[in-house]
Amino acid sequence: MMHLLRQRAPKGRGLPVLTCSDMLVKAPTPARQRSCLQCSFSSRPARGSMVKSRATMVGAEGADEAEDWSELPLHPSETTLELWQAADAVILNVDCTITKNDTLDLLGAWMGIKDEVEELSKKAADGTMNLTDAMEERLARLNCSPQDIKNFMLAHPPKNRLVPGVEEHIMALRTRGIEIFLVSGGFREVALPIAEHLGIPSKNVFSNSMCWDLDSKHINENHENPIYLPGANLGENVIANNNLIETVQGADLIIFCAPHQFMHGICKQLAAAKVVNRGAKAISLTKGMHVRAEGPQLISQMVSRILGIDCSVLMGANIAGDIAKEELSEAVIAYTSRDAGALWQQLFQRPYFAISLLPDVPGAEMCGTLKNIVAVGAGMGDGLGIGPNSKASILRQGLSEMRQFCKYIYPSVRDDTFFESCGVGDVIASSYDCDAQLCFRHVPALHVCAHVRLPTLLRVAEAWCQRRMAGNTMVSFDDLEKEMLNGQKLQGVLTSDEVQEVLETRGWELDFPLFTTINRIIHGEVPPNMILRCCWMRYQ
Which stretches make up the Glycerol-3-phosphate dehydrogenase NAD-dependent C-terminal domain (predicted)? Predict the structure, then answer.
């Protein structure tokens, strides 16, 4: 079953704050979309700064009376031309502006329910039906699978869907150095191929995403997650439930292990439902932080503040695939309550999974968060083909900046925390991966090919760097997550953006050359080989 996951623009990236339903392209605009919102930015802003913009509504004379394209004027007004010439960035809508038709309407026709989908689209357009309700209803009627989307894209390649003149128009804008953003009320899965065809990077595409829930029945019957941990027996006492509220209701112990960008929403849901017992205890395995105007907030702090319960953390060098194979692994449980820490230790410890206790929640949690940035840097080094000496320099500088950042934010962090599994141990485990050869096996019931052992953030960063160095400036970490991880989310890039926002806000960039350089490499501001030069800076 598909549902909506709304994508939000990352904080502090200097993205335009204006969105639009239409933009004027070389070909005239259909009568039902009579006017165009065009943006001109007074200057290209730095990340984290307020975007200043001016916009005007421009439309062709007589557009209100026009009934088809042929009746609309072919030449833009002087005001329109002035705006185009002054703009530093342009936001274009995909459906019916870049493309000749609405994506969902076309998908509906392809799925054989053209009239039903178009009727719901009309209700959404004229306001007789809520936009979200209309979208959910269209998705329910379509009920398409990932394979259906692939077949649809093969039947309707991007070039065949474009409005005449769009390719030339986009090329002219790119030649002038104007940054182009695409927005769509449709879906990222069908917007990205259009962006790629037009040479627009995926990071500049903002749309909803299609998500397919893994059937909990399959997990409960087979005791295996065939997408994210194939081949690992989860045990009969692990019961999958897609309903968050039902899962947590009445629980005395709650384990959080969701990607950190979803944790705030999860906690708000639970708080609103009032299903968390007052005496419940929580532990977070989530590596990340929530960036706010007043400063970063740890996930454990968020859980305690919103839900009003004690929250410990489990961090360390413990890659899931190795633990599933019962290889010797270590972890740290950091606590604010000694009794709670001892309870969690008793529950988690196994002959192959050693747990130590540490009274330093901020230190352990920040180490687990920051090591993801170092792993991205290590992967970039692998992509450059560096040897162990150079890689050791990246890891040494990374561990040094991890300690320094922790001390800047939380001065009480203990020095010995960095020598625990959550510190140097996790940096090493995340930055070396001998299993570069991936095997695949088919899961017929899910129509996917799943990895026997999923590649790590390190391998994704390595592949990203190799493609960048080969001249592919369009590749993104999002693309590689879908290609290499079946869409599973890695935390390195998002964590890098969040940490960089803190560094820029507080003027600490020069104090953290590796973190800053990695972030600038990710966003194409400097080439990947700059990661080695930043490690050399300390000797100059």
Answer: 360-433, 468-532
